[in-house]
Structure formats: C-alpha cells, structure tokens
Write a structure and sequence with these properties.
The chain is about 25% helix and about 10% strand. The chain is built from 3 helices and 2 strands, in the order H-H-H-E-E.
Amino acid sequence: MSQSSAAPEPVAPEGGLVAAPDATVRRAQASALYRERLAAVRIRALEDLAALPLTSRADLQAAGVHGTRALPLADVCHYGESSGTRGGSNSAWLTGAD
C-alpha cells in the first residue's frame, strides 16, 4: 500500500455547512426568478450567506406560475398554489425527493 506524498487540501471548518446552501443556490439559478439575482452568488463560507437576496411575496407573484420552477416539468411530481387570499397566488413545484 503506497501513501500519497501530496498534502491534503485545507478544509474550511464550515465546509460541510455550506455545501447544501451552495447546491440550493446552484439549483435556484435554473429558475427565471433567481437566474439573474443569484448569477454571481456562491456559498463558500458562512459569511457568504449575507449575499443572498431577500425574496418577497410580491417577487414570487411577479415571477408568475413558471417563474419559480427550477427544474424540467418532467421532474415535477406535485404542483401547488397558495389560496391567494391576500393577493395573487404563489406556486410551488416539488419533486419526489422533496
């Protein structure tokens, strides 16, 4: 058994904590709503979370039904909408993994 002489890459203490949020940002970039908003955003450290823009109910409504969808329709297993009692409705797209 041989050992590698290469030094291991340093790992940030929060490395495991930022992998999921960074993956979520990558997926959200596929939606019309977040494509431009998140274009330059990467989550590499906990401090990067401050770069995430806030999303209001009005933003979701302005995006429209398909504006929040970040996956192909073939991957959707459930679609739902809010009742819209306080204005227009908001849509949600879910996969089997959700």
